[in-house]
């Protein structure tokens, strides 16, 4: 069976990201799954169990300073060398900021086609892409080379398929061009008690209607009571109410939780692009005509400063 490479998205602190498990699940429909771990020393050993749980039968481990000491570029070099050697049927990479850069560089190095933001990938390499902020769906195929496809987080539900992966060490030699940008310091993101936004099963997001950074406490409180992550609309982020890394939408993160609560968010198409596949959507907005209500399963028309504390009170009683 043809080999399919999955470039692993993971971090030492958070472990293997859910999008990686989604890619492993998708890759199983295309061939024999090999995971490519590119990171610091010991990364493959740290992630091997999880990767095996979701069907990786082989792990290629490119580890150490040559990979990890520079920004992104050596990772693309490592994958390109591997592709030339093993001639896989496809390469799957996460549609994250780093993943897209690896994919772009890889496609250039191999003079190969590239598809980004796929939500499905058929066995014949046809990718389903969501475009124009979710307004249209396109089916596309790479016409030159092998399918190099980036997969959007939260596209599918990952399914385990236990395997015992063999680990093969890769010798990665970063080129001079790869070494043009160097990592000078790593500061681990403060890991609070809340789940990671793109992986959370409950997300509570606030918009411009929250009206101030201070008032975002209302959003945080309900998120904490529900054990969820906090998100924000771009208007809230641009107004300085909440940090950028929590932005949900076309130019932010894509979430697909079991429950999405939109507080003081109008429901612009660019916001919907990042949350419309959520299983159940609850909206709180004082404007009964707000477009978010077209999408919501449950809506409360009212002032968030009254509705949300009341909801919090009710949850606390349970
Ligand atoms: P608004 O549209 O101003 O809505 C605020 C809502 O709060 C209103 O519906 C109002 O009725 C309600 N409200 C006000 N006060 C209260 C109250 N006291 N109680 C209850 N409700 C109240 N946006 C994103 O979110 N994510 C993106 O990734 C993103 N990417 C973009 C990319 C591009 C290229 C462009 C052009 C735009 C992008 N946007 C994005 C911006 C998007 O178009 C909207 O401007 C933005 O989503 C609006 O945010 P909002 O709903 O918080 O604010």
From TrEMBL:
It comes from the Bacteria. Its cofactor is FAD. Residues 4-187 form the Electron transfer flavoprotein alpha/beta-subunit N-terminal domain. GO terms for molecular function: electron transfer activity; flavin adenine dinucleotide binding. The keyword Nucleus does not apply. The electron transfer flavoprotein serves as a specific electron acceptor for other dehydrogenases. It transfers the electrons to the main respiratory chain via ETF-ubiquinone oxidoreductase (ETF dehydrogenase). Belongs to the ETF alpha-subunit/FixB family. This is Electron transfer flavoprotein subunit alpha. The lineage of its organism: Bacteria, Bacillati, Actinomycetota, Actinomycetes, Micromonosporales.
